Amino acid sequence: MKTIFKTLLCASIFILTSVSLSAEERNIAEEFEQDTARLEKKIADMLESDYSTMGMIEAANAQAEGYDALLNKYYKILMQCLTEADKKVLRESQRNWIKFRDGEYAVISGLVASRKYTGGGTMWGPVSVSMRASLIKQRLMEIYAYIDVVYPGTVYE
Fold first, then answer.
1. DSSP characters for 97-146?
2. pTM metric for this prediction
3. 121 domain-assigned
4. Is 154 helix (H, G, I), strand (E, B) or coil?
5. Residue 133 domain flag
6. pLDDT in tens, 30-54
7. What is the CB-side half-sphere exposure of residue 106 using CA atoms within 13 A?
8. pLDDT in tens, 142-155
9. pLDDT band at 156; cut points 50, 70, 90
10. Which of 99, 47, 40 shows the shortest CA–CA distance to 70?
């Protein structure tokens, strides 16, 4: 019953702001697919033009930045239709995730540093940046999946 109420409330908000909920539902999935496809194409093009160690690092950094931008975008979309209480919970969750992410970055840096000194070579630079990008992508996918709770059937049909 609570979910139905939230859905109706969200629908009312979107109708009042002249945005059709059904159009919003359709467009979220399409937009997400386009956004992620564009990013992956950009990364593939970067790697195709420069597959050196530095090129891989630059591509992985661009990937991390791209996923971070998408994470922020879809976080905001999710926040638009939450109650104040749910917004507060999501904000706290995101703050906790940022702390977790920063801790993971420290672990990755430590592991990479130890590999460099034990003969790991230059490939650990691109590996570490890719691991960081993967963390951000994973959170993006979690946030995107939460959108399906707000807009049932949008993400998973």
1. HHHHHHHHHHHHHHHHHHHHHTT--TTHHHHHHHHHHHHHHHHHHHHHHH
2. 0.77
3. yes
4. coil
5. yes
6. 899 999 999 999 999 999 999 998 9
7. 6
8. 999 999 888 776 65
9. low
10. 40
